[in-house]
Amino acid sequence: MKLFVALAALLATAVAIPLDGRITNGEVAEVGQFPYQVGLSLEFKEGGAWCGGTLISDRWVVTAAHCTDGAESATVYVGATKIKEEEPGQHQIYVDKKDIIVHAGWDASKVVNDIALIKLPVKLEFNERVRAATLPKKDGRYSTYADDIAVASGWGLDSDKSNSVSPVLRYVEQPIMASSKCNIYWAGMITDQTICMSTKSGRSTCSGDSGGPLVYKEDGIDYLIGATSFGLALGCEKGYPAVFTRITAYLDWIEENSGVVNK
């Protein structure tokens, strides 16, 4: 996974510990449990990489800038739980680089504005396996989500001993950490544009989960509150908080570039 190694090297120059793009010790997802989850097989001039993403409409996907920056194309897996075999209801959609929008303020050296959008070439038909997550309501009054339980999902490494992404979709449910507590671990890297998840008991996102969803469920609605950004390259089971791009900080940007908004 050259993408994540490169990111770790860049970030290691700015902080005392190396980082990674980073589900360890998670549960196996049931079919249709996370209909908003997509997988991304990304092609670069120097090779390929795997990331996650989230449907926010029948045409748009939110993911991470560090996943898509420089990508020549992407194959978007929708309706999938297994990514190494065919399954009913799974579709793979090719997207050209012209339909990949990386935030103009993305800075790999500082890991800021780690967000991107992908426009699908055709509208999806929603069903029990394919459905968008809901953006937080755009009203200027946003929860910090501190201590709330959220769920992260993806096909990332299922343990620190793994050397390839998981063939099946997995998830963890963990509490959101207050930014002040998270910054004790990440030494000033946590801002109003990021959100942290506790990884106690080694339950965490990991390499291959990048760009994927962090979701808070309220009254039966799946609200997208984060996109997987980074974690500790020394190991996903070490207890360091996993860091996500905070979606409420980018609602204007998402609306401006995709037209998707929850008013």
From TrEMBL:
Q: Where are the transmembrane segments?
A: none
Signal peptide boundaries: 1-16
Superkingdom, taxonomy of origin:
Eukaryota
Q: Which keywords label this protein?
A: Disulfide bond, Hydrolase, Protease, Serine protease, Signal, Zymogen
InterPro entries reported in the protein's UniProt record? Peptidase_S1_PA (IPR009003), Peptidase_S1_PA_chymotrypsin (IPR043504), Peptidase_S1A (IPR001314), Ser/Thr_Proteases_Immune/Dev (IPR051487), Trypsin_dom (IPR001254), TRYPSIN_HIS (IPR018114), TRYPSIN_SER (IPR033116)
Pfam families linked: Trypsin
Q: Name one GO biological process term.
A: proteolysis
In terms of CDD domains, this protein maps to: Tryp_SPc (cd00190)
Q: Does the keyword Magnesium apply?
A: no
Q: Which PANTHER family match?
A: TRYPTASE-RELATED
Give the family this protein belongs to, as stated in its UniProt record: Belongs to the peptidase S1 family. CLIP subfamily.
This chain belongs to the protein called Brachyurin
Natural source organism = Drosophila lebanonensis
